């Protein structure tokens, strides 16, 4: 399982966000360059349609592949009330022929994206990861060198943490608490519940930039 | 990692494999001073596509095998023999396949038995049984040569060992003999340097042989 919130930030404020996160984290950021291929089952395959994502980490000297299945979100009155999405996720590393494997099984490429940015990892009541990425689409099949932003000027921020059925309430609380640090710059909410950019972002960013980096909070 | 050859028992025409043969084979290993060490078990599972229109079956692989190997407890292997694909993944890939519901696991077989140390060789003699029965479907033997990882460099030594082994077994006048089929690993994108992916491919080939023997 994982707990997730998302938000958007204007590209011009990403540097300020990075300063803020660096201050909170104390450890250098991890660069991200991930080619994400979303595969869907062909029309005849399976009693119900299925979807699987292949993530190719292009930042490594030798690209590594991960298979990722995102399951349904937790439902019910309890789930409606919490501001963090809780969903099942299963991941597996795989050898580099995994795309060919799924094609042979009967899966088709639905869309592909290139996510470029960075990540910070925190241990604050839960193992929290904050990723800040521009989401890019490829103009030609698999042409990652020629990707262009889907939303120029806007980047996606995701805050995630792994969880289990035993501890998800604590993880939700840890994420909600952590998000308060980021509130001046961006609003984080469940995916698909868009809140847009934050009006105070410009002022907050200016403040962070003028204070400079290296200030640990 | 050290390389291994996977041998399988080929019964003579008109005969079938039985537990007496398995017992005799184990005694053969002990007769050449193989030191019994412990148990081993690998599992092979057949996956079949779930299709809405069965008439389109030919468009989908019907030979999808999933393999869990003793030597790699955190990994899982898928082999699509017709397309010469071997995929290595974490064992969580099984959970992903279950959630996708596009391919369902049908029959599973255990390859299990005892392991023996014999100088630089490690031997594993095993029976092939369905997971919910003791119905013997075959006998296999892994011959692992510990000092070398290169398939080419080890070929002569392995052939010599298997010759000695075949001679030892033949003295028991059993209705069959061990066979070794070397897959064309290059077709699977595998190199001369041995890995668990090579082992997975050998199991898939042996499985095909066992099925063919039963049919014949």
Automatic annotation (TrEMBL), chain A:
GO BP annotations listed: regulation of transcription by RNA polymerase II
Keywords annotated in UniProt: Activator, Nucleus, Transcription, Transcription regulation
Keyword Plastid: no
GO annotation, cellular component aspect: mediator complex
InterPro entries named among the record's database cross-references: Mediator_Med18
Localization of this protein: Nucleus
Gene3D superfamilies documented for this protein: Hypothetical Protein Pfu-838710-001
Superkingdom classification of source: Eukaryota
Gene Ontology MF: a single term: transcription coregulator activity
One matching Pfam family: Med18
Task of the protein: Component of the Mediator complex, a coactivator involved in the regulated transcription of nearly all RNA polymerase II-dependent genes. Mediator functions as a bridge to convey information from gene-specific regulatory proteins to the basal RNA polymerase II transcription machinery. Mediator is recruited to promoters by direct interactions with regulatory proteins and serves as a scaffold for the assembly of a functional preinitiation complex with RNA polymerase II and the general transcription factors.
Family: Belongs to the Mediator complex subunit 18 family.
Assembly and interaction partners: Component of the Mediator complex.
Protein name: Mediator of RNA polymerase II transcription subunit 18
Record gene name: LOC104609067
From TrEMBL, chain B:
Swiss-Prot/TrEMBL keywords: Activator, Nucleus, Transcription, Transcription regulation
Protein name: Mediator of RNA polymerase II transcription subunit 20
Subcellular location: Nucleus
GO MF annotation list: transcription coactivator activity
GO biological process: regulation of transcription by RNA polymerase II
Role according to the record: Component of the Mediator complex, a coactivator involved in the regulated transcription of nearly all RNA polymerase II-dependent genes. Mediator functions as a bridge to convey information from gene-specific regulatory proteins to the basal RNA polymerase II transcription machinery. Mediator is recruited to promoters by direct interactions with regulatory proteins and serves as a scaffold for the assembly of a functional preinitiation complex with RNA polymerase II and the general transcription factors.
Transmembrane segments: none
Keyword Transit peptide recorded: no
Protein's organism: Nelumbo nucifera
Pfam families (alphabetical): Med20 (PF08612)
Family from the record: Belongs to the Mediator complex subunit 20 family.
This protein's GO CC annotations: mediator complex
Subunit structure: Component of the Mediator complex.
